[in-house]
Task: structure prediction
Amino acid sequence: MKGRNYAAGREKIAALTFDDGPNTSITPLVLEKLLKYNIIGSFFAVGSNINSESEQIMKNVFRAGCEIGNHSFAHADMTKLTAEEIKKDIAETSRRIAAFTGSFPAFFRPPYIAVNDIMFENTDLPFIAGIGANDWESEVSAEERARLILDQVKDGDIILLHDMENNYATVEALDIIIPEMLGRGFGFATVSQLFEAKGIQPRRGIVYSNALQTSIY
Ligand SMILES: [Zn+2]
Result:
């Protein structure tokens, strides 16, 4: 298992994931919360956000043992793109991630979780979705976000939140979600560690919200 195993000895395992960064406002605050509880998570980066301004936080996230996944370059609905456009978009994002971390991403999260066969056929990375909390809607409070996650989370789940600009309510929600889940016996792993812990080799044609899932959604 790559990196430190923060889920060892825990009864249940889940993976916290954060989309639409990196940025210098919310991404550092999310990382701070993970460090506060001595856990790790995964960040699905948008390629166009990876630049000299976000370089340091990308490196900090990676050095903390977190995983960085690919969330496309332009955050477009990729079901509208050609095979060549899809390949180029994903490859450029992976290249930028590797340029700052030295490590190529192992997972892809499709923007809007919109997928089609052309995307599956032209992407080598397994597709990841997750259980969510409508945390891109400003009217959903931190308490509500936490409740939406805590009401549904189970062993093997991938939790989909956003470290997008101004998303302070999700940072706040982590102070409810993480301690409550630790109390319920959950450990937190990166997405890679989650699959490894469950003995699952992720397959093409599935959009995983849980490592044990066997149908497309
Ligand atoms: Zn997104």
Observations:
- The beta strands are 12-19, 42-45, 67-70, 127-128, 158-162, 186-188, 207-208.
- The two ends are 26 Å apart (CA to CA).
- The first strand starts at residue 12 and ends at 19.
- The mean pLDDT is 96.
